Amino acid sequence: MTPLEALKRYFGYDSFRPGQAEIVDAILAGRDALAIMPTGAGKSICYQVPALLLPGITLVISPLISLMQDQVKALNAAGIRAAYINSSLSESQISRALNLAAEGSYKIIYVAPERLESGAFRSFAAAADISMVTVDEAHCISQWGQDFRPSYLKILDFVDSLPERPILSAFTATATREVRDDIICTLRLHDPELLVTGFDRPNLYFQVEQTHRKDDFVLQYLRDHPGESGIIYCATRKNVDKLQALLADYGFAATKYHAGLAAETRKKNQNDFIYDKAPLIVATNAFGMGIDKSNVRFVLHYNMPQSMENYYQEAGRAGRDGLPSQCVLLFSAQDVVINKFLLDRKDFSDSDDEDAELLRQRDLQRLQTMERYCKTTACLRNYILEYFGEHPAAPCGNCGSCNNVYEQADLTAAAKWMINCVAETRGRFGKAIVFGTLQGANRARLKEIGATNYKSYGQLKDLPRDVLDRLLAQLLEDGYLVQTDDQYAVLRMGDITPLKQPGAQVLVKLPPRQEPERVQRPKKRSVMDALTKAGLELYQQLRTLRFEIAQREGLPPYVVFGDKSLADMCLHAPATVEGMIGIYGMGERKYEKYADQFFAVIDAYRADHPDAVLSLDAPDPKPAPETPAKTAKPGSKATKAAFCLTEERAAAFAYQDALSPAEMKEALAAVAAPDMKAPTIKDMEGWLLDERLIAMEKLPTKGFYYVPTPAGVDAGLRSEDRVSARGTPYSVLQFTPPAQKLIVEHYIKK
Fold it and tell me: Is the pTM of this model over 0.70?
């Protein structure tokens, strides 16, 4: 079997993504490999495909229990025998897994780095045929990485203990050049195939919002993105608890995650998010590594992260399926204070004093980088890419900065006064002293150091603080000033030679003084833009089926099929079940298990809507031949048209707290036109069944009743338990206002 055949057979993909084939070929040729690929670029395929084709076992070393569990579920669902060994298993379960592995039952085994020191595991490894050892999250091995883990240093000892050295492959999403070199050196990779695919994620939209009203922003954002799955990161547990409680009060299905919660609570909340029971999760940075949830449509940062590595890794959890997603960072000056407080309490006890001081300086430098990101008016995407060593040719044209409206101001004179002030301080003070001096502040500290006698004192008293901030950011970017990396971050002179040249200017982008009405950017949908309204209706039906299957099989919905696969089904709408084999992500195993069920929904939808156009690329339906209208005697029932509503009559509908089906029928009839047939409960319930918003439950005796599905509950349907005169329990549907609106809109004549 070739790598491409394995890719299609097990994963349902017709071709490799950029960079994947090079790494796969290098590993199969027996070479070590290091791949630095952004989240969502398909790192796991790079070692899973070779693992299938190499003769022995592949060990995947990962620090993340959740990643192991998700990956193993996905592999088993694809027909690949895989297992994990970590602290979530009992000793008897671990022993059984090792016995099965020794018998050759598994091709891929995920293992925590701490497990490598276990005597039982080393005994198994010494006798096993291990073809490859893969190090995931490889930046954890570098002391200069953002997430150094001492347990990773034991990996090389384990590899050296094996009878024969296997192929070594390492993968990470975020690594600067220094961290990359450290990985190669520490793991002692032999002439590795090095791949850096580029850090750009074109489907992600980056945005920074400077606001003190963060709660209001989050609430409005969630109202504007109903039903979408998202992560909201906060810097502290206190903020997580407070924000999650606020969202719950406003009716949003949001759970939370931080290290202060009990382990069982964390696990439950994480699973509720992964399985789409709670589409929103509010969390600290303790959450997310290894969460392979593909349909996260947005990541909001309630507070600024401590480093660009952390931010890009956390933001990168959005849009792993390649569909448009948003990454929004909410920034206020208090974020810098919070992060400095947290860094001051960071534990460096595992490092000697010299290394600890270097690491502290590195952390402060990273924090400054993030602060500048939040304040820059330049392209946000390019700022990120340049940090990781790339040099884009032009602004991306699709980020918060590129789409914002700025006025370019000539602040050359103000810039010279700021530079002069830094010169007068002799590089001894930071931004607070410099700004206070320029604004002529009446502070004891300024008098104490003699700043009130500087020539620059009070020279920029008419410039607002936010303008001074932007001016300083520009001077730092141009190199006229520099900011030290130590704890106090003092300002010092840079190279001001270019500013002395005739005609030299300092141009600063400023928001307009009278901001225009904010332009509402088009909402990025979570399915391909080519889907029509009918296509989106079918897409929702397929999502409902996916949820039901996932619930039944105990899998996260995205393991059954990703959003991109469902959208592909709507775009192509195969005419036969055999046509499902060409759908994106439809491997052989998934075809055998699920193709019939998803095809049945597609086929039923097309039968019910024969003229529906599902995508913009589909041909227009042929018009139905005109038939003469049948005449009927005046006053007969045939003279009345089928029930429907105009916009005007729909507006007159009387919404109530809750309506039974009979009451709903009466309320609809009250606003119906005289020449319309009366609505029927059967028609309403039939439509709800078609939309999979209700399902039938059998009574112990004859008959049945309807109950809302999870999608129906989300739409506002409720179930009221009752008991019949004979003592038989049953339920009656209840329509809350959202469900009432859904029914009314269904009957509006299009």
Answer: no
